[in-house]
Amino acid sequence: MLDEKLKKLTKFMVFRSDEYFIGMNKIKNVLKSIKIQHCKIADKDHEDEFRVFAHVGCKKDTICVSKYIQSLDDCNIYGILAHEIGHIIDLQHEDIARYVLNYNDYNYDGMKGFGDEVMADFMIDALFDLHIYYDEDKIQTLAISPGAINQIF
Ligand SMILES: [Zn+2]
Ligand SMILES: [Zn+2]
Prior knowledge:
Layout: H1 2-16, H2 24-33, E1 35-38, H3 40-48, E2 54-56, E3 62-65, H4 74-92, H5 94-103, H6 108-112, H7 116-128, E4 132-134, E5 140-142, H8 146-150
Parallel strand pairs: 1-3
Antiparallel strand pairs: 2-3, 4-5
Bound molecules: zinc ion (2 copies).
C-alpha cells in the first residue's frame, strides 16, 4: 500500500516538474529509483518521538518508514514521503541540489546553513511547486488534496 502511494507521488512529481529545468532528467531518474522499506529504527524513533515516522540514510535512494505511518491520513503520508524525497535529493544527490538552488538564484552554502530540514522542504517546493506544511502535531502535510495524487495511475 505504501509502495503504491510512493509510486503515485513520484508520478505526480514528474507530472508537475518543469521540463525546462536543466537537471530534470536526472531528477526523474532519481524519482524512479526511490524505494521504501520498513525499518525498526523508524519504529523506535516514533516510539521516542510521536511526530517522527521516517528517515533516509540507511540505504541509498531509500525511504525508511515505521509501521505506525499506516495510521496517518494520506495528506500526512504524502507530506512525509515528499519531505523524505527532498532529503534524498539534498543529501544523496548534491549535484542536483546545487542545480536547484542555482536555478532559483539561491546560494547553495548559504541555504545549507538553514539546515537539512529546511533544505528538504525547499527542494520539493522548488522542483515540483509542492508545499509541505506542519500540522498541529508537527507532522509533515502536503498542501494539496490527496485525491489529486490518488487518481494518478
Ligand atoms: Zn532506516
Ligand atoms: Zn526531515
